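## retry 2 of 3
previous attempt timed out at serialization; input unchanged, resubmitting
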Amino acid sequence: MSAFLYGAALQWRLDIRSKSLLITCYVVPLLFFIVMGGIFTSLTPGASATLIQSMTVMGVSMGALVGLPPSLSEIYGGDIKKVYRANGVPLSLGLATAFLSAFVHLLLMSAILYIAAPLLFGAARPRDPLLYTLSLAIFIAASLGVASVLGLAVKSQAKLTMFSQLVFLPSIMLSGIMFPAELLPRAFGAAGRLFPAAWGYRAMLDGGFGPGSLWPLGLLLAVSAILCALLLKKLEKDA
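## retry succeeded, writing output
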């Protein structure tokens, strides 16, 4: 436990100094919120009722799918993995500490949006903050699970950037935060339900917390955990 806590604290300090994480977890999501928040509330009637949820889905998806995979690629594709092996540290520690650090950063970013949206754009806060927070935590975990699979499976940084964008962009466009998912063609709507963003958005809406929106997130997280375990075993054999 002490080794895990030390690793988590070390990863937290490294992430705080990371320009990449600063951009993907804070700068881009908050700039998007400032620009698009004003546009949404000006052009779309009723947008203030779901502004917090939609901007949070965008920010979490950006921070998880674009921000976490490069960090994992650095850990498992470079000298850090060799240090783990030389000191008898389980390779899973790197994934666990990076996951936890990213989780905390995304919670902080979401808290900023939660506080700022009503002040800047008159956005309505969720009626039940506890259920909203639980939905948010599950959504963040599911998103980071998918991101972890990408970070462990793709070794090339160039390819990793491409794959991250290929998952991030459709997950946002088909999630329902830009326009109602009901307006999408049936095939696009079905494709959108393959990503955590669509289910996270539904779960965080007022009255959306329930099995119908939570079990897909749980399934995505469980599948991601299994895939990560298999990928870590493969990395141990290749080391």
